């Protein structure tokens, strides 16, 4: 049995999608044990409508909720009876609990991880690594860090590269992930001091497949598996890409509805549009894992639906089934030791 | 007469599109005088095929070309007979020459501006300000800085806000442009030290219409007229947005060509797709102006076509007809003086 904790109250559509996604996971994955944390008076009636193996799904009561308006660190410290605080408490104390999935406040999840779970030995900073679909069917790209660390030094970025590579390999089966450094030009000497130093460090890091700088316009090209960046520019990269795709789809739809002829055309291409929309839908790609945390923590999109919750749980399961945290601990010890020794150059 | 210099050799499709776009500008704008700088042996036969008022278009010979592989500062200093160096030399020495338009190397154009043209008094750093169409027809958004300055301090960003506001007003007629600070969250306290300090500075800057932080996903929403950012994150914002739109259009096209039914549909919506493509096409929006330079310098997209060259020249013409450089000089003197006086708070 592999035990995963699910925060039932986080997200825009909680707790209904959280419950449904969790039930799906319990039904699909036979050696999965779930603790669903949240308001019992709301969860019990929802669970009563579902069919599942009750021996593998228990509820832990928590009557409060941490919202996105709460100050993250303060909320984790003071809202002791919130679903997120209780989830972290359980993750910390229950040695059998392997992972936490939440759709709640990103800041609070980060604060809770740092305060209650801690980092893997040797990891300087945990980092978010969301996955996006590229324009090549079935192909994905990870962005690390996408927002946990606004200020970074080269060693943080080196660790993001090591952790992200292991993650793509263990959770998604990507062989020797191609790692690129997000920069404002392809040439080695481009960018600010952070980029120049990081470039040299990545070039000399064993165990990663570093392919050089990548410009933001190539994110979805499928040429790169993992983009390494500080959390500020990673957040800009992730959100502008999401925003542009959403706005463009909206514009196309509006434009097609503006004449009789194009409406007829829209009917004929509807299936293909849905295919593309589905391909781009983050609900199918799980959440952003917080790499470097001592236990697996996954942040799902706030507007996730049932399928996204299920995908997040599946992702946590795959990571833990492949012992990602242990693998990170080993690699980090090796990679960060290497540059200190001149013989490694 | 308003005299503008056009670098005939920069860009992927030079000199043919440069010549055609220039001729269009001369034919459309009656008080425009152009100096086309480049290899006479190539320009003369191209010009011979066109109809225009020859008294308002002269050629200045320059036999070399600065490529994107040249080191920017070195190229400006050593390739004296390149079209770009000659253009800058003319812009510097000819008091009647008001502006330069080039599709050539961004780095060299920046280096040439700094070395040969200089800054407006009081301006700390010149900054690129490209314009993107938003998803609302006829509406645009500027990004300042999009790549000239990878390292910035709050006063630079304050100046980008002042200069960009004047630019949108003078060159595009935007009334009281809504200025936002690019950040990783909407709340005032979000971001790194640079963002927090800049937020306070912008809030207290007279003469700009500061509307707070903006997340990258809202760039194309039409809610903001000018996004202020350091050149590194501005470059990520610009290029990831361009890249996502291009990749998505490519994917949709491929998807629609994959079945007979959707091919029929594609025929019916073709016009609308072209409308959207046209709306998004940077060829219709001119180039990225280098705000803060002592004279107007415009960088067109390297892959510009004839229409884009024309739009860049028109843009330079509009800026100069409205005396943008003088307006910037005045506002910068006032805005940067204000925060030093405690009475202004």
Task: Describe the fold and architecture.
Two copies of one chain form a homodimer. The first copy, chain A, has 345 residues and is α/β, with parallel strands linked by helices. Chain A is 46% helix and 17% strand. Chain A is built from eleven helices and twelve strands. Chain A has helices at residues 16-28, 40-48, 72-78, 83-93, 106-117, 154-172, 193-203, 231-256, 260-280, 306-321, 324-337, and strands at residues 2-7, 32-38, 57-61, 97-102, 127-129, 131-133, 140-144, 178-182, 209-214, 226-228, 288-291, 296-299. In chain A, helix 6 (154-172) crosses helix 7, helix 6 (154-172) runs antiparallel to helix 11 and helix 8 (231-256) runs antiparallel to helix 9 (260-280).
Compile the SSE list and pairings.
The structure is a homodimer of 345-residue chains.
Chain A: E1 2-7, H1 16-28, E2 32-38, H2 40-48, E3 57-61, H3 72-78, H4 83-93, E4 97-102, H5 106-117, E5 127-129, E6 131-133, E7 140-144, H6 154-172, E8 178-182, H7 193-203, E9 209-214, E10 226-228, H8 231-256, H9 260-280, E11 288-291, E12 296-299, H10 306-321, H11 324-337
Parallel strand pairs in A: 1-2, 1-4, 2-3, 4-12, 7-10, 8-9, 8-10
Antiparallel strand pairs in A: 5-11, 6-7, 11-12
Helix pairs in contact in A: 1-10, 3-5, 4-5, 6-7, 6-10, 6-11, 8-9
């Amino acid at each position: 049995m592999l035990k995963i904790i699910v925060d039932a109250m986080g997200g825009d559509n909680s707790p209904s999608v959280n419950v449904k996604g969790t039930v799906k996971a319990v039904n699909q994955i036979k050696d999965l044990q779930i603790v669903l944390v949240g308001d019992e008076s709301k969860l019990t009636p929802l669970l009563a409508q579902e069919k599942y193996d009750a021996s593998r799904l228990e509820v832990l009561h928590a009557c409060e909720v941490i919202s996105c308006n709460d100050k993250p660190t303060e909320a984790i410290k003071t809202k002791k009876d919130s679903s997120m605080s209780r989830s972290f408490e359980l993750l910390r104390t229950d040695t059998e609990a392997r992972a936490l999935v939440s759709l709640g406040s990103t800041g609070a999840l980060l604060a809770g991880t740092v305060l209650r779970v801690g980092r893997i030995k040797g990891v300087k900073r945990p980092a978010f690594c969301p996955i996006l679909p590229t324009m090549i069917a079935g192909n994905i790209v990870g962005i690390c860090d996408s927002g946990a660390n606004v200020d970074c030094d080269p060693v943080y970025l080196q660790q993001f590269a090591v952790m992200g590579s292991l993650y793509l390999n263990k959770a998604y089966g990507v062989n020797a992930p191609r790692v690129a450094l997000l920069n404002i030009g392809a040439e080695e000497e481009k960018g600010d001091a952070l980029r120049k130093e990081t470039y040299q460090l990545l070039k000399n890091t064993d165990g990663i497949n570093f392919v050089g700088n990548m410009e933001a316009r190539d994110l979805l090209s499928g040429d790169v598996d993992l983009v390494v960046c500080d959390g500020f520019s990673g957040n800009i990269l992730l959100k502008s890409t999401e925003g542009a795709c959403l706005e463009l789809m909206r514009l196309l739809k509006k434009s097609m509805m503006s004449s009789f002829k194009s409406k007829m055309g829209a009917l004929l291409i509807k299936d293909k549009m849905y295919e593309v929309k589905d391909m781009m839908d983050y609900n199918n790609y799980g959440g952003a894992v917080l790499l470097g945390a001592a236990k697996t923590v996954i942040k799902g999109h706030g507007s996730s639906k049932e399928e996204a919750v299920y995908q997040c749980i599946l992702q946590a399961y795959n990571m833990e089934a492949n012992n990602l945290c242990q693998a990170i601990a080993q690699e980090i010890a090796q990679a960060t030791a290497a540059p200190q020794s001149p013989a490694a150059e």
